[in-house]
Amino acid sequence: MKEVVLYDYWRSSASYRVRIALNLLGIDYKTVPINLLDGAHRKPDYLALNPQGFVPTLVIDGKTLTQSLAIIEYLTEIRPECGLLPPDITDRQKVRALAYAVAMDIHPICNTHVVAHVTAITGKADAREEWMKHFIADGLRKLEAMIGELDGAFSFGDTPTMADLCLVPQVYNARRWGVDMTAFKRIVDIDGRCAELPAFQAAHPDRVAETSLPAATR
């Protein structure tokens, strides 16, 4: 296999998802850090790889892949035995619904460039934190209800799926922004189980920051 390369930002939720997937599948990869704070994602060389200027970008099998969930689904299709998506079509829909509830309903409106614009147009220094807390908490409340209808140790069943790859980075962000997690018992329990697994541990932003950032910038 050709070298697998992940263009990554340590604190990006989308990158975090793909790191977990690669770890769970046992795929070795090289990391190329893309510092969003320095605007590295807007440089011509990176835009030639990913015209949206987002992270992650994954180079695998001689192909350049973008969009975290599309990447994870690609990995699932080349490794169907991994279990990130169940074999049954109805079960796959349920897992996708949970994953999309995070990746399409919470994450986009809490993305860095969106929140920066909110702060700019309101002129309120504290608008960023208020915005994050409101939309993350509201999204997690709905996700808790969706998961509550299902059985299993994880979001769907007794092994991690694509839903958990989305849930864990969102919980990390929720805690980072001071969201009260008291009401989200199932979510907290699932996050705790994932935290016990080496693949999730190795993908954690704090672990990644130890190797990709100078000490002064952590």
TrEMBL record:
<dbReference type="InterPro" id="IPR005955">
    <property type="entry name" value="GST_Zeta"/>
</dbReference>
<feature type="domain" description="GST C-terminal">
    <location>
        <begin position="88"/>
        <end position="215"/>
    </location>
</feature>
<dbReference type="InterPro" id="IPR034330">
    <property type="entry name" value="GST_Zeta_C"/>
</dbReference>
<dbReference type="InterPro" id="IPR036282">
    <property type="entry name" value="Glutathione-S-Trfase_C_sf"/>
</dbReference>
<dbReference type="GO" id="GO:0006749">
    <property type="term" value="P:glutathione metabolic process"/>
</dbReference>
<dbReference type="GO" id="GO:0004364">
    <property type="term" value="F:glutathione transferase activity"/>
</dbReference>
<dbReference type="GO" id="GO:0016034">
    <property type="term" value="F:maleylacetoacetate isomerase activity"/>
</dbReference>
<dbReference type="Pfam" id="PF13410">
    <property type="entry name" value="GST_C_2"/>
</dbReference>
<dbReference type="InterPro" id="IPR036249">
    <property type="entry name" value="Thioredoxin-like_sf"/>
</dbReference>
<dbReference type="InterPro" id="IPR040079">
    <property type="entry name" value="Glutathione_S-Trfase"/>
</dbReference>
<dbReference type="InterPro" id="IPR010987">
    <property type="entry name" value="Glutathione-S-Trfase_C-like"/>
</dbReference>
<dbReference type="InterPro" id="IPR004045">
    <property type="entry name" value="Glutathione_S-Trfase_N"/>
</dbReference>
<keyword id="KW-0413">Isomerase</keyword>
<comment type="similarity">
    <text>Belongs to the GST superfamily. Zeta family.</text>
</comment>
<feature type="domain" description="GST N-terminal">
    <location>
        <begin position="2"/>
        <end position="83"/>
    </location>
</feature>
<dbReference type="GO" id="GO:0006559">
    <property type="term" value="P:L-phenylalanine catabolic process"/>
</dbReference>
<dbReference type="Pfam" id="PF02798">
    <property type="entry name" value="GST_N"/>
</dbReference>
<protein>
    <submittedName>
        <fullName>Maleylacetoacetate isomerase</fullName>
        <ecNumber>5.2.1.2</ecNumber>
    </submittedName>
</protein>
<dbReference type="InterPro" id="IPR034333">
    <property type="entry name" value="GST_Zeta_N"/>
</dbReference>
<dbReference type="GO" id="GO:0005737">
    <property type="term" value="C:cytoplasm"/>
</dbReference>
